[in-house]
TrEMBL record:
Belongs to the UPF0324 family. It is found in: Cell membrane. Signal peptide: none annotated. It is a multi-pass membrane protein. The keyword Transmembrane applies. Pfam families: Cons_hypoth698. This is Sulfate exporter family transporter. It comes from Reyranella humidisoli.
Amino acid sequence: MRNSAVAADLAKLWAPDNLRRSAPGIALCAVIAAVAYYADTRSLLRFGAVWVPPLILTLVIGMALQPLSARPVLKPGLEFAGRTLLRIGVALLGARLTLGNLVEGGALPIVIAVAAVGCTIVFGAWAARLFGLSQNFGLLTGCATGVCGAAAAMAASAVLPKHENSDRDLAFTVMGVNFLSTVVMVIYPTLREALGFSLFEMGVFLGGAIHDVAQVAGAGQTMGPQVLSDAVITKLLRVAALLPAIAGIAWWVAKSGGPQSSARPTPPVFLFGFLALAALNSLGLIPAGVRDAVGQISAFLIITAIAALGMKTSLLALVRIGMGPVMLLITETIFVGLLVVGLIYGLRSFGL
């Protein structure tokens, strides 16, 4: 019965009338995303060694246009972009993954990635209570910190129960993980001598401890091609954990009961698309050109969804979020960094 209801909702969502109503809002979000992409390709977001990710510019522009979100002509498109286009973008991420690439680094990156994802999500849910925040907020930030930054935050938000501050919490998490990723992208490469890591261990550390894929690549690139390769492989292992992580969060929320989870989340159907594309790519059925194009489309759709998120988020509400969420994100960032360092030291004795 539930599967038929989901199918009916999908058919209604993609009905021509609904798409026509959604077109103005989707177009505006796409234009915002295109402006951010153009600025990034022209290096307008680079200020010396500092790089501002295009999704941050997208979010800021969206929040600046927040007063427009109340217009009836834009509302359907903002909802469509923020939900449906997001799910499609996350599903298309699967085309970037192959099982061969994910295991070529040996056991250490796999152990680090699994521990970073699982432990950080659980830690986030637990630590949120220490700062007077809800478990669901801890799951949201823990998933963003443990898996793959903004994309994981958007995916987790899709299966967490909605409340009046859902958009504000998501916008804060997206901005927070990107800011902290940029900070540690600059700091972590300078720690190799102090940590006593080999180049391989340094790549695993960067890929296991930095939140966003772009910042992992940036940090790895500063240390050479070997570190970059190992860092990206470790990070892709964390990205591959998106499916079980989101499915686990959906199960956790549905099982927990209580008023926050009384509106049970829709089954994360979009993640099966993620898994199917990863399987096809592992079998070599997706040509390299198609894979690259799908990756670009995925990134653009996620940034378009972030534009919708920004337009639905009040800057004033974001400012009023308080120090608790800020301290939680910082604590999670420190936690995953120390966890990865400790595991690398601990696993040396096993020859991993």
